Amino acid sequence: MHREHVLSTKELSRDDIETVLDRAADIAHSGTDRSRYADTILALLFFEPSTRTKMSFDTAMKRLGGTTIDMGSVQSSSVTKGESLADTIRVIEGYADAIVLRHPSEGAAKMASEFADVPIINAGDGAGQHPTQTLLDLHTIRENVGFDDLSIGIMGDLKYGRTVHSLAHALTKIDARQHFISPESLRLPRSVRFDLHEAGANVREHTDLEDVLSTLDVLYVTRIQRERFPDENEYREVAGQYRITEAALEAANDDLIVMHPLPRVDEIAPGVDTTTHARYFEQAHNGVPVRMALLDLLLQGEAQ
Amino acid sequence: MTDQELRVSKIESGTVIDHVPGGHALKVLAILDIDGSDGETVSIGMNVPSDKLGRKDVVKVEGHELSQNEVDVISLIASDASINIIRDFDVVEKSRVDRPTTVTDVIACPNRNCITTEDEPVQSKFDVLENGVRCVYCDTIIREDLTDHIDTA
Ligand SMILES: [Zn+2]
Q: Do A107 and B137 touch (CB under 8 A)?
């Protein structure tokens, strides 16, 4: 994989994806030579709180044998003194061998890549993309049900959910049948539908899970956030319709796996955790080997 | 003076932008950042009968030869326009507009959460689609009301 930056799943080919996942499987199985990364420093620039993604990258770099630096909380950093992201990147790229960036603005990682000679890894840009989440999602799918003849339902907030946007682009590369299930007000944004259409993706949109549940190999659930709705009642009504329970899953295929990028609130009932369908904790654990694999492939050149 | 003469009254040197869709002449002037305050001689014909377009607008600007960047942006709202460069009352160059593949620093991204709307050293950049344009940074697609987003400041 020859790639300077990892900004979006749109630019990853099926080959790129499989290379990362093969390496992840390899690492999970036999570990790596930690001495290769003894001098490697990864910068973690999180302009938005995200304990999980940040800790996962931190763990991945340290397990490879390297170290990490971060800027502490945004409140105490130079950002509050009005420094531009471009300047921050120009400074930090001199300290580190790669930069992981989480930022509230769409396109932040792309812009950062224009100011950096070291690899930029997009760890979430507003409602845009979150490619490393997608890689760990795909790893979980491949390990459990494989990519062949895959039918997946993606449900919840499809409009603002960056994990959904990233995942949809990648699923198109592996020719999956994609069913999008959401209330009308939270359907996929025009730009994503445009791309999927252009790429010839196999896509259907639904408002009811019942219509497709029995045909699915994977059900990927995302959270519907309170702040997307003008009032509490409307939110409760909609959120209730897109909640998964043990009873709802009785109509599903026995081999169906249920995934969720976490954290969940109540969109998956706790009773589902102990069913054979639940894979969301395994999915979260896959973040470490997948990010190790990605870092390994990106940094290979510089760590010799 | 006949109507015909009014519509096609000649300019000595400058640019004639012909075959603009009817009603879009003022948008063309907005793109060129011309509001008359600098004293340029500008004449426009609006909703002139046209074989090709039914109704067309014509814009004539004295003393101003359009740059490629200006032509690119005009092409976004007037894909059938033709550009005539005039010197000494003669048409020295006549060309159809050509849609560019990208336009830089001419359209403001309507997504308030886009990095190009922040105080960062980055210019807006849009890919030109068959129907509309798309922000290279945040992927937002603009189809309708494109001229509302043209940033002539
Ligand atoms: Zn934008």
A: yes
